[in-house]
Amino acid sequence: MQNEAKQALLITGSSGLIGSKFAQIYADKYELQTLDISDPIQPVDITDEQTVFSFFEKSTAKTCVHLAAFTDVTAAWQQRGDTNGLVYRVNVTGTEVLSRAASKFDKHLILVSTAYVFDGKKDTLYTETDTTNPIEWYGQTKAYAEEIVMSSLHSWTIARIDQPFRSDPFAKLDVAHKFAQKISQGAAKLFDNHYFGPTFIDDFVRVLDFMIQSRISGIFHATSGEKWSDYDFGVALQNALSLPGKIERNDLDAYQKQQTRPYQANTALNCKKLLKILPLEQKSVVEALKLIEL
Ligand SMILES: NC(=O)c1ccc[n+]([C@@H]2O[C@H](COP(=O)([O-])OP(=O)(O)OC[C@H]3O[C@@H](n4cnc5c(N)ncnc54)[C@H](OP(=O)(O)O)[C@@H]3O)[C@@H](O)[C@H]2O)c1
Prior knowledge:
Blueprint: E1 7-12, H1 19-25, E2 30-35, H2 49-58, E3 63-66, H3 73-77, H4 86-104, E4 108-114, H5 137-150, E5 156-161, E6 164-165, H6 175-184, E7 188-191, E8 195-196, E9 199-200, H7 201-214, E10 218-221, E11 228-229, H8 230-241, E12 247-250, H9 252-257, H10 272-275, H11 285-289
Helix pairs in contact: 1-7, 2-4, 4-5, 6-8
The structure holds NADP nicotinamide-adenine-dinucleotide phosphate.
């Protein structure tokens, strides 16, 4: 039943790592109309055009936040080049269907994307004007999704993030909870030559709220805007949470030689474009790490 006090919002991936935090924080603000494949009452597969169109047609929401994706990068590599595979169907076909629905029923579409659209060869922070050049299949399919949205007729926002982590534990372990587990078990070997831009989900969902309300259009990088090595992030996490255990340095280049899936050496993002217009304070990574519950 429609709650008059709440704003209707279409959302995909609301049961995932990020979507469930959004749903938790904004339970009182939005009436979430979820397109969720595992919904026990009304499951929606975003690749099913008929179901998605009928969902959009009935909805009074002005915006759809699109979080659903196949996010297991290593599993995605096994399907590289396969346009009939699940990774392609969810990430590309699903986005295509949502984009067509947004055009037909005049909705603003917010696509949550990834720093893995870049090749990771840049030493400094990636900006929104840097050329994308994915080196593995998950990143490639997300880059295709971005192209679909950018060439659409509806209004859109693309929010790129990297290695998201939340304050509370979640079924799918995020980078902070995964590292904390390894450190506490005394078995943490962390790369000191692999860099990323941690994204604090508790802050990022507020960025999404800002994007919904402002309908800003274009591509925005929305991480912490900081660049961390895995090793330094692990040490900072250990200090913040007073974790027992020893952290050893590991070498990405040596690790890469044993793997077939390519790893981006640096996916840290420059967020100045967003920070210029964002009316919110973002926590630094060190501040965010202190809020983590195990
Ligand atoms: N996690 C990361 O490291 C990371 C980094 C950068 C960007 N991102 C982007 O951020 C977004 C959210 O990521 P996340 O980590 O929160 O994802 P997640 O936890 O893996 O959740 C993915 C969601 O997509 C849903 N889904 C999968 N296939 C679907 C389909 N065919 N139809 C409808 N729903 C479907 C899943 O539903 P079920 O649970 O029911 O299967 C789940 O709710 C994604 O777009 C991802 O590309 C994530």
